[in-house]
Amino acid sequence: MEAMKRAASPSSDAANKRRYHSQDDTEARAVAEHYNARPEVGREKRKESKIIRLKSFNNWIKSVLIGRYIARGDYVLDMGCGKGGDLLKMVKARIAELVGADIASISIEQAQDRYNGLRNPPFRARFLALDCYSYPLAPHLPDSYTVDVVTMQFCMHYAFETEEKARMMLQNVSHTLRDGGYFIGTIPNANWIVKKVRDQKSRGQETAFGNDIYWITFEEEDTKEFPSYGAKYMFHLEDAVDCPEYLVHFPTFTSLAKEYNLELEYKQTFHQLYQEAAQESHFNNLLYRMNVVGGHGQALSEAEWEAAGLYLAFAFRKRRP
């Protein structure tokens, strides 16, 4: 994928680090505060996590998507970049430039610090503390700035709190993405979640389910009907997430995306993607290098494998209007 000529390259100085603190969006503030409050731990401490294999597996999934859709010399927008956990993946992809945006300002500071800590950073970067689901991204970038790929990992579902937020998110994706560019991401699998909670109800059980590393809880009245937007549930994943999330009704997502010139090209659950990508030698070797599978063949626990089934991966391509 050949990178297009861009406007003047953005700098990564402190003056360009925007901060957004919503005064009237309680849910957005709760999500930002949740991720801001999560401490940055060292690599050795992360190895002690109860879900270390699952975290490695999720990173492998992201590496597969990045390996397939991001090419050397690309300009990339990481919307919902968090603490910069995918920076090394971008180093390996040999991109030319990165824009990282996230609602959580402390996470953005940590992402900037991670980037600054790279030895001879091989790409330029800027980081923006901005709610890309409530405000346009364009005013924070040079005029006519475009990227080859927009990536949104484990975060897009927050936009589906309302149709307005989903539309703003897609507007930011489409406006920033060049024609022919890719929009990739990972989200919870709403079909799997809804089927699970309906199975629970059909057996007269509670509208909550999970195992010893994750659980999902719906309010009883929220399971009578699942709207296209605002279908809220509480999600807990051990040592990772503990906040409200929203179902993404995929047909609604794809239909809405078409209005922004984004056509679906790929959709697979994590389990399906694993079965497919593990057949490719490069990605199979990566399973071992990333410690998804240990030296003695140890893989994800049964509980971790079930939790991995919560998610799906997607890729859209932007067509000409």
TrEMBL record:
Positions with biased composition (Basic and acidic residues): 21-42
Site positions per UniProt: mRNA cap binding: K83, K89, R114, H157, E245, Y311
Catalysed reactions, semicolon-separated: a 5'-end (5'-triphosphoguanosine)-ribonucleoside in mRNA + S-adenosyl-L-methionine = a 5'-end (N(7)-methyl 5'-triphosphoguanosine)-ribonucleoside in mRNA + S-adenosyl-L-homocysteine
Enzymatic class: transferase
Biological source species: Bifiguratus adelaidae
Residues binding S-adenosyl-L-methionine: K62, G80, D102, D131, Q153, Y158
Origin organism lineage: Eukaryota, Fungi, Fungi incertae sedis, Mucoromycota, Mucoromycotina
Source organism, top-level taxon: Eukaryota
GO CC term, one of those recorded: cytosol
Binding site for mRNA: N58, N59
Keywords assigned: Methyltransferase, mRNA capping, mRNA processing, Nucleus, RNA-binding, S-adenosyl-L-methionine, Transferase
Subcellular location: Nucleus
Name assigned to this protein: mRNA cap guanine-N(7) methyltransferase
GO MF term (any one): mRNA 5'-cap (guanine-N7-)-methyltransferase activity
Ranges of residues in domain MRNA cap 0 methyltransferase: 49-319
Keyword Nucleus set for record: yes
InterPro entries xrefs: mRNA_G-N7_MeTrfase_dom, mRNA_G-N7_MeTrfase_euk, RG7MT1, SAM-dependent_MTases_sf
Residue span of region Disordered: 1-42
